[in-house]
Amino acid sequence: MKKSTFAASVAAASTAMLLLGAPLAASAHVHVDPDHADPGSYTNLTFKVPTESATAGTVKLVVDLPTKTPFTSVSYLPLPGWTTTVDTEKLAEPVKTDDGTITEAPIRVTWTADSGVQIAPGQFQQFTVSAGAVPKTGSVMLPTHQYYSDGTVVDWDQPTPASGKEPEHPAPTLYIEDSAPAEDGATQLVATAAPKPEAAGAGTTATVVSIAVGVGGLALGAIALVIAVFALTRVGRQGERKVQG
């Protein structure tokens, strides 16, 4: 095997690792699980929050709840080391539902880290609420604001278009009567092969499939790289034997 062939093999292996590992990179964003619920139901929503900064930790999280199609009730799962508050306010306009007219509703959930507590770089934390009744609508965005110890605030508040092309800071979104848009790029293959989510647990299934594809891609790339290195080493040894002979 020539050195040029070896270089090509390494490049191909690296490319495979990057392309097939792309679904893992997408999972680094703040997202909600499940991402689908039935109208009228009560569901547990878990926000997975990774710290993407290399120098600062996450010390506060704020989730904005819908006001045009509000939840009637929101409670939270206590999280050691964090203080949680649910803000309820009077709505600008009353909302009529099957259960009556709503004049006030939960509009915000805030988690604040206690002194000395943070989500350190390379770590993630899960924040869970129970929300309902789920409004009868297509979907609701849940804009989330991530506060870092260095004063930086990252707003996860951008809608994902129907094309599935993910924006830089996508807002966690709960799909109700609508289906989640198909993702673009490599992950679109997974989206088209899997059935559209029809139940609250479907979001978890899609996430597991994406992670599995990413891990598989990394494994294949690593195997190709090991084979290429082994081949080069073998060629080198054969060359040495010829010189000695």
How can the largest sheet be summarized? 5 strands, antiparallel
- Helix/strand-derived category reads alpha+beta
Count helical runs: 4
Q: Alpha-carbon distance between the termini?
A: 20 Å
Gross geometry: globular
- The total strand number stands at 11
CA-atom Rg in angstroms: 24 Å
Question: Based on the structure, what is the oligomeric state of the protein chains?
Answer: single chain
Strand order of the largest sheet: 5-6-3-9-10
The helix fraction, in percent, is: 25-40%
Q: What's the average pLDDT?
A: 77
Beta-strand level of the residues, as a percent range? 25-35%
Low-confidence stretches: 3-26, 185-211
Provide structural commentary.
A hairpin with a 4-residue loop joins strand 9 (144-148) and strand 10 (153-156). By secondary structure, the protein is an alpha+beta fold. It has four helices and eleven strands. The protein has helices spanning 3-20, 22-26, 188-193, 202-244; strands at residues 31-33, 43-50, 58-64, 73-76, 82-97, 100-113, 124-132, 139-141, 144-148, 153-156, 173-175.
Helix and strand layout, with pairings?
Blueprint: H1 3-20, H2 22-26, E1 31-33, E2 43-50, E3 58-64, E4 73-76, E5 82-97, E6 100-113, E7 124-132, E8 139-141, E9 144-148, E10 153-156, E11 173-175, H3 188-193, H4 202-244
Antiparallel strand pairs: 1-2, 2-7, 3-6, 3-9, 4-7, 5-6, 8-11, 9-10
Give the gist of this structure:
29% of the residues lie in helices and 31% in strands. The chain has helices at 3-20, 22-26, 188-193, 202-244, and strands at residues 31-33, 43-50, 58-64, 73-76, 82-97, 100-113, 124-132, 139-141, 144-148, 153-156, 173-175.
